[in-house]
Amino acid sequence: MKYLLKNGTVVTGEKSEQLDILVEGEKIVQVGKNLPSEEAQEIDVSGKILFPGFIDGHTHFDLEVAGTVTADDFETGTKAAILGGTTFVIDYASQDKGGHTLKEGLDKWHKKADDKCSCDYSFHMSIVEWNENTEQEIQDMIDHGITSFKLYMTYPAMIVNDCDMYKILKKLGKCGCFAGVHCENAGVIDALIAEAKKEGRLGPENHPLVRPDTMEAEAVHRLLVIAREADAPVMVVHLTNKKAFEEVMHARANGQKVYAETCPQYLLLDDSVYTKPDFQGAVYVCAPPIRKKEDQDCLWEALSREDIQTVATDQCSFTLAQKALGKDDFTKIPGGLPGVQTRGTLLYTYGVKEGRITQEQMCKLLSENPAKLYGVYPQKGVLAPGSDADIVVLDPEKESVISAATHAYNTDNNPFEGMRLRCGIDKVFLRGSLTVDDGRLVKEKLGKYIARGKKQM
Ligand code: DUC
Ligand code: ZN
Ligand code: ZN
């Protein structure tokens, strides 16, 4: 199929220009002014803004958390993603503790995802322990196109000790790869949870109190000291607060290569959500927790200075019935929020339209930078000849209100419920196929596994 998208505003990380885009098969073949249509189907996109397909480098679909499984799997989750303009997700696959291989973990995640996805997909590999085979296994992952990894500094099933962390980071650094790290101080959080329980404080309003910003910042600091010793670049994933951000900036000032990711919930919500009545605070339970207004301000400023490289979602959704598993004990509430459907429209509405970031910066945060970080640039992340025709046609005039009654997730709650969107995703092309048209999903399950190269950032 050949399409000619006429007169849209084509955005890159550097500039926005009114141009035509010619798509043939899966690729963009030409970008320019007044391109002749020849036998291509012409689509008038004047007044629309064209972004490279958004890339979400942080999702959890079909993941077991706190004795239950996320409400959205790869099928429902990637439908929501593509409706929101995300054409490529990178989900976190995980090794199991107790002598299991990375390959076993990866095979498990392929089984969850293969043939079910409505957008393209890949995996980061979570490494939970080090043994004599880990170096070779990392190389095998890289050969399979898995070039980014994840380490957890919390959660009993995933936590890596400092010794293993050092060895893993050092190996990744030598390979030209890096790990995204979940930074929270597990030991102190356990102690704060024990105190809360002893005092009979069992409601969701206690969740942010037992996982304070200082304990995220401490873990970021420790990670960066270890990464320095290992001579390895790292990414702090889901960065939430000012103190943790200052640790990142401090390490950079010392010459370290540190990437940072944040998420819409940390930019747009504050910790008052945890005090909502009738157990509604449970909807917002995620780790790290949602922070304070001053932390939001810090994160927005960091985006505008380009000190944070990407905005991902940490999509990890549960129904209210699942959240109610923690009705009598907030530590049993499965942690996570849905987000893949509204990341782009929220960032455009509250970032670009409110003058906090430019649309070119939005393009870097959602498309160009993750493509470079995760080794798929310029196949993805840019609207240029030779690139995959992953194209988001955003309508800057459309208005809507986020609601669980209309969203595509398999959940009955939405953390952004009631928030106004001052734009809409009109069309999405996935490798040249029109998959979303007039805001509706018209083609499903065209997503394929994308083998990735090494970072280019
Ligand atoms: N945090 C969450 O809230 N859910 C899934 C994983 C994570 O790190
Ligand atoms: Zn995490
Ligand atoms: Zn996560």
From TrEMBL:
The keyword Phosphoprotein does not apply. Signal peptide: none annotated. Transmembrane segments: none annotated. It comes from the Bacteria. Its EC number is 3.5.2.-, 3.5.2.2. One of its GO terms (cellular component) is cytosol. This is D-hydantoinase. It comes from Blautia obeum.
